[in-house]
Amino acid sequence: MRSTGPVIGALAAWVLLMGSLLASLPAGAHHSFAMFDFNNTVTVTGTVKEFRWTNPHVILLVNVPVKSGDPQVWSMELTSPGNLTRLGWSRRSFKPGDRIQLEFNPLRDGKHGGAFRKATLLDTGQVLTSNLREAEKPGLK
Amino acid sequence: MRLHASASLPLALMAFALASHSIAAPAPAELNSPPQARDWADLARLPDWSGVWTFSITDQERRIKSDPVPWKPAAAAQIKRLDAAEEAGNPKGLFVNCLPEAMPSWMLITHNALEFLFTPGRVTILGESDGNRLRRIYTDGRGHPPDPDPTFHGHSIGHWEGDTLVVDTVGILPQTYIAVSEAVGLPNNGDMHIVERIHLVSKDVLHDDLEITAPHVLTRPWKTTRIFFRQRARKYDIVEGVCLQGSFSESTDADGNAVFVPAPQTEAGNFVPPK
Question: Which among A45, A85, B13, B143 has most CB atoms closer than 10 A?
Fold first, then answer.
């Protein structure tokens, strides 16, 4: 049986982190995207950990392998489910375990977050993008 | 239907009693009359605004430069600081609390689709975020209430001038932002009055010409326009958009129920991935 020590330690750290975050948190997340560095595009290969299909911003969590140790979790932010639906997405566009190549504009503060630009599902070759500025005209199909 | 004499006498007495009483009582409540067949038929003569209307972020940004907001000096100094913070990548999140973008920012900076519903005596605008946006514009000839309760979208009355809907809105909360982006804007600080002229400029392009009077923060009424594009593909149908949902994660409680639990976020509103 595995030792529970590290688990409890990790749990305690998580509870402390949650506590400190929640204590100072605003209620929601309808935010500007100015915290992302749009002059810098990063490409990584990873595995989908979670796909949160919710307003106001859809979130894609990706496990990105590192040279040693556990993979890093990166959080990609997108526009709303409604807007993504019109760009051809659905809540089933990604599922945990999907291998993807991901392009994003990283957070300027160096944390593991980014504004999603493009993903290619490596097993099917399907490409997903999310640029609303390419949909600024009437009568879109 | 005729009433029997035995029934009509007490009714007449009751009517007399009510009439006598009303001399000293306030005016009877105004009623919304039931629409007649002609009222429904009249709707067919209005311009066709059916479909879903999408927005142009590019044009929203361009208009901020072409129709700059006439901020008062004290307001302009605050805007300069907000611009600098946004430029530096540390944006003030005007809407991270998920309160409505409200008037006039919904019309000014929306990144979400909207639709119009015409019913007798009213135009309703429905949107897709904030926990589902809604403006009721009364077109039945009524005026504004003398002392409306301030609300996020205010009290709107409208009338048609040809194919243009002219909307007059007052009674807006002083806290609602006049926003030029999701990170730059100031509360209107009260006494705001908005006049909009909403009209088609071509078959599938709609303009909202706004004139925003906000005497506490603007030197003069700000005139600007926002563009909307008609979509008829069904994938554009408006969907539910509850802003606060993103502040929660799906979970299961001790009894096995599907529940929401708070999700960690940064102060800027970014989702914090689990470690």
Answer: A85
Cα A49-A53-A59 angle, rounded to 5 deg:
55
Tell me which residue in A32, A57, A109 faces B246 most closely, judged by beta carbons.
Answer: A57
Which candidate in A25, A30, A132, A141 is best for mutational testing of the B interface (most B CBs within 10 A)?
A: A30
Asked if A82's CB is within 8 angstroms of B238's CB, the reply is yes
Residue B21 has pLDDT above 70, yes or no: no
Query: Whole-angstrom Cα distance, residue A72 to residue A78?
Result: 19
Chain A residues whose beta carbon lies within 8 Å of the beta carbon of residue B242: 55
Distance between CA A102 and CA A125 in Å, rounded?
12
Q: What does the alpha-carbon distance between residue A64 and residue A114 come to, in Å, rounded to a whole number?
A: 13
B269 band by pLDDT with thresholds 50, 70 and 90: confident
Let me know if residue B22 belongs to a domain.
no
Among the CATH numbers 2.40.50.140, 1.10.340.30, 3.40.50.10490, 3.40.47.10, which is that of A29-135? Answer: 2.40.50.140
Distance CA B158, CA B121 (A): 9
Residues 93-132 of B with CB under 8 A from A: 93-98, 111-113, 128-130
Q: What is the pLDDT of residue A18?
A: 38
Q: What is the ipTM of this complex?
A: 0.83
Nearest C-alpha in B relative to A135 = B56
Domain count, chain B: 2
Name every chain A residue with its beta carbon within 8 A of the beta carbon of B185.
none
Instruction: Please determine, for residue A124, whether its predicted confidence score (pLDDT) is greater than 50.
Output: yes
Contacts of B272 in chain A (CB under 8 A): 21, 75
The pTM of the full predicted model, rounded to 2 decimals, is 0.84
